[in-house]
Amino acid sequence: MSETPSRRIDRIQPFRVMALLAEARELEQQGRDIVHMEIGEPDFPTPPPVVEAATRAIADGKVHYTPAVGLSALREAIAGFYQDRYGVSVPAQRIVVTPGASGALLLALGVLLEPGQGVMLADPGYPCNRNFAHFLDARVQPVPVQADTGYQLSLALVQQHWQADTRVVMLASPANPTGTLIPSAELEAIIDWVERQGGTVIVDEIYHGLIYGESPPTALGCSERVIVINSFSKYFGMTGWRIGWLVAPGELIPGIDKLAQNLFLSASTPAQHAALAAFEPQTLDILEQRREAFEQRRDFLLPALREIGFDIKVEPQGAFYLYADCRRFTDDSFAFAQALLQEIGVAITPGNDFGDNQPQRHVRFAYTTSLARLQEGVRRLQQRLAPDG
Amino acid sequence: MSETPSRRIDRIQPFRVMALLAEARELEQQGRDIVHMEIGEPDFPTPPPVVEAATRAIADGKVHYTPAVGLSALREAIAGFYQDRYGVSVPAQRIVVTPGASGALLLALGVLLEPGQGVMLADPGYPCNRNFAHFLDARVQPVPVQADTGYQLSLALVQQHWQADTRVVMLASPANPTGTLIPSAELEAIIDWVERQGGTVIVDEIYHGLIYGESPPTALGCSERVIVINSFSKYFGMTGWRIGWLVAPGELIPGIDKLAQNLFLSASTPAQHAALAAFEPQTLDILEQRREAFEQRRDFLLPALREIGFDIKVEPQGAFYLYADCRRFTDDSFAFAQALLQEIGVAITPGNDFGDNQPQRHVRFAYTTSLARLQEGVRRLQQRLAPDG
Ligand SMILES: Cc1ncc(COP(=O)(O)O)c(C=O)c1O
Ligand SMILES: Cc1ncc(COP(=O)(O)O)c(C=O)c1O
Fold it and tell me: Are residues B128 and B153 in the same domain?
């Protein structure tokens, strides 16, 4: 009995990409050159002003626990960011600093869900979301989404799949693995309808800073009852620091505070002090240049992959992912990804990690490596998959 | 409905000491001088070699995600620590790096517990433990412990309170809030008996580096099925960095890895690189000096409080806490703590935070401030509580 893990563990699938990543590392140790298009984090280092702020804080001995909800100064700075960037006024008291968006998702779902209640989410989608729900003994209600809705939940889909026990609807805009946005009017309509059913919408805006084209408003403008998840990981280039935040209705903050006190004690103190520099004009300039670099990469990779024969049905407007139908080449995306890795040293993520909606027919490309490396990757793919193209 | 938190939140009590801490900060802002004896973290800064390692890692751009179970080098270093300090050989594969002992406790309980299963723990005890269990919809089985067992579970108590659904027994040695140890023979007997019932023992050794007197062996020497929790927070002076670890039976590691991948992605990367320097001889020298300083503080504070009239029934051999019966002064320890704060500017933690076993009659003193400040605190307590003593 002792060595049998709890059933909640059985319901959680390990990420298939981890096996590929390990294989890739092994090949590299053997001297092979691998083009990494599987990795879900920016290749850019943490911006220098943020690094400097961290170094200063550490030297000053700012290394003790903070309040569980985060440093007041950081909550204020995040409130200022919503004001400056989105023109939305969010009181700092509704903002909770967390160990990454990961910590924010655990707190948000933890405060909302009774065991057995339903969590509606798009399939394909960010894999951890359904696993947080499994962890909390909630019921995952995946909705297969297609290109016609930009791989997003729509009001019609939400209404169609709503069940008596549905408590939470999870959205992400831009989304992982598709990079697609939810149109603002649709977002508003979903939030409005779900809240009228007595449910809560969680919107993951972790990729909101990485949008190519017109910037949509934050979901916080739609309602004071929506929960918004965000993070310093992706746009701000701070993955390994483990720092993010959530914005929740005021009534939920005491419960979230209690949970954070117990589960985390607090988020990393050096990371919090570092993040204070993330909103400085100098940092935002650097981030804007990086956003442009990502856009350039997308503008190269998207047509190049289409030309090879990958069917990318929706032009993604954000994040750093391309979600491609690969049925022209395979009906087993995992074997396909493994073959590409072994044969031509190109690492990509098989669809299996994102759900059960035709995963064998899909792969995800991440443009989290330089344009030159992406070009090399495309060259290899071209040669292997479309030699006469 | 939307703003009603889940029932699991209702079962979690907020820490009473937080209200006192906020009051203390307010008094300080009004210019009052407060002696802090309520704080559960070392006043010492992070040791310089650890700070240097962090600064170097950050400058080198070591700020990306690591494997969910932690950097191999750190897992190896922790294995080396067990070998050097305890003469126990623990394969690095059984070690998982976590966001503090907090993260380790969530993973350990998460991998073991089905909803409804029982978790036996000592009352008084570390408050988060029962709240982790509540969070996982497990049943908390608190066992009132008294001075006769050093405020620890004994084999007799475990046997007496064992129930058909008991899955986990949680121990801590030294314990919070009492600073007491479990005798090695007793520890071994408990582990042996619980494992024969098919249960698992979790031993929290977060204060194991802070023992005054002979160093007992780690619980890892007793069994390969025990789970040991530890952290860089207390002994290593790294609270705000959020970095700790657990050691688990090999069979549980894949499940723990899956959970960590989903709940945390990884522990803080700068903190992991910093922690690599925690086991260097130079760091250990500093930590040994600090351990001696804590011992000196205990040796001052313990008799001084007894003289004032606090009944400290067991001489604590570790951590930085004294757990005192205060019935000579009050039968409402929370009101008592508030009065001491307001009237003489001495902050302590009321028993309420540690359980339901006569909490009104107990308070916890933390010697996490300098000897000079402790002396000032004792002077004020003496004047207020034993003016003729
Ligand atoms: C959609 C989405 N949400 C949340 C996260 C978690 O990121 P973090 O915990 O680093 O903030 C990720 C990471 O890949 C993600 O893709
Ligand atoms: C007994 C015990 N275990 C675990 C923890 C958690 O510490 P951390 O998460 O900082 O490692 C604490 C903190 O006070 C503690 O007292």
Answer: yes
